[in-house]
Write a structure and sequence with these properties.
The protein is an alpha/beta fold. The protein has twelve helices and eleven strands. The structure holds magnesium ion.
Length: 327
């Protein structure tokens, strides 16, 4: 008879999740607990061991599909990790006290090493019959209108840190409203190397960002997800070199949006004024790409023409203004 916790492990694996074991305050025999996973399920039940510090410093980030195990000796870790842990939290070997019951999803109590081993034994057959992981987060896939920020949503003011200089581009509210009206998500994906270079502080960036959203709100429109890349590949700017994959023309910001709101990329639209906007979108599988005319149109068009030489399937259209962007 299958017990509840075995079923939950199967569900976790099917959803593409990982079993996370915390090392701080773990039982001295933690390796004994992990042994069946090593010996019998390596490559089938993914699991990791991480410290509280790994999680708090974001060196390791859990996903909503993951399942983190907290032994009775680690309850304090649970409190410390509450703000960063995604996914299920499972308490082993003790019933949660009322004071922290809300922090726990399941308790397996009592659960001893021999029960754990026996339970894992029983998973073998079921694991063999599992199909490839299904993504249960993708229950509703909608297309997304991806927008670059500077010279698409707002007029470009290079490295702007002054909210008073924020000005919406003509037609942006109409485009966003049309997108929402047609069931699209709307997401902002913007390179902001000024942050990485230290030319713009985070509070300054935030003030400019919020001014943009306030101006949109005045027009009764909004952006569902906003992501930005502070990456800059420059010697002597170590902080700026983190998270290179997020900077367009790489596709990281699109993937980040997709991880939060499931997007049908093939039916999605990108509007950008730079070649890198469109190349990044194409890399993420975005189906329709619009190059919006700006002062640098000729330069960007010729970059894209070069890109097309190596990527013949890459297609884009030029638009003189936002009004002529079709969804
Ligand atoms: Mg731009």
């Amino acid at each position: 008879m299958m017990m509840q916790w075995e079923t939950q492990i199967i569900d976790t694996v099917q959803m593409g999740g990982v079993l996370v074991f915390i090392t701080d305050g773990a039982p001295a025999n933690l390796e004994e607990w992990l042994k069946p996973l090593h010996e019998k399920y390596l490559g089938h039940i993914p699991f990791v061991k991480r410290s509280v510090n790994d999680l708090q410093s974001a060196k390791y980030q859990t996903k909503p599909q993951d399942m983190t195990f907290i032994f009775s000796s680690q309850v304090e870790c649970l409190m410390a990790l509450n703000a960063v842990l995604q996914g299920q939290r499972v308490l082993i070997g003790v019933e949660p006290l009322p004071s922290y019951k809300a922090l726990v999803d399941f308790a397996w109590a009592p659960c001893e090493l021999k029960d754990w081993k026996k339970g894992l034994e029983s998973l073998a057959e079921l694991m063999a019959g599992l199909s490839s992981p299904q993504d249960f987060l993708g229950c509703h896939e909608a297309p997304c209108l991806f927008l670059d920020r500077d010279d698409v949503v707002v007029k470009n003011v290079p490295y702007n840190k002054d909210p008073a200089k924020v000005e919406l581009q003509p037609g942006i509210e109409d485009l966003i409203s049309r997108a929402h009206g047609q069931g699209y998500w709307v997401a902002l994906v913007t390179n902001q190397s000024g942050l990485g270079r230290g030319w713009i502080s985070w509070p300054e960036y935030q003030a400019v960002h919020q001014r943009m959203l306030a101006l949109l709100a005045e027009k009764s429109c909004w952006i569902d997800e906003c992501v930005w890349s502070f990456f800059i590949d420059q010697e002597g700017v170590p902080a700026g070199r983190l998270m290179a994959s997020l900077r367009k023309p790489r596709a990281g910001m699109f993937q980040l949006v997709n991880s939060k709101i499931k997007v049908n990329m093939a039916k999605s639209v990108m509007v950008g004024d730079s070649a890198s906007d469109l190349i990044a979108a194409a890399g993420a599988g975005v189906g329709r790409l619009y190059l919006l005319a700006s002062e640098k149109l000729n330069k960007e068009q010729s970059s894209l023409a070069d890109y097309q030489m190596d990527h013949p399937s890459f297609q884009f259209e030029v638009r003189s203004d936002l009004k002529s962007v079709t969804l």
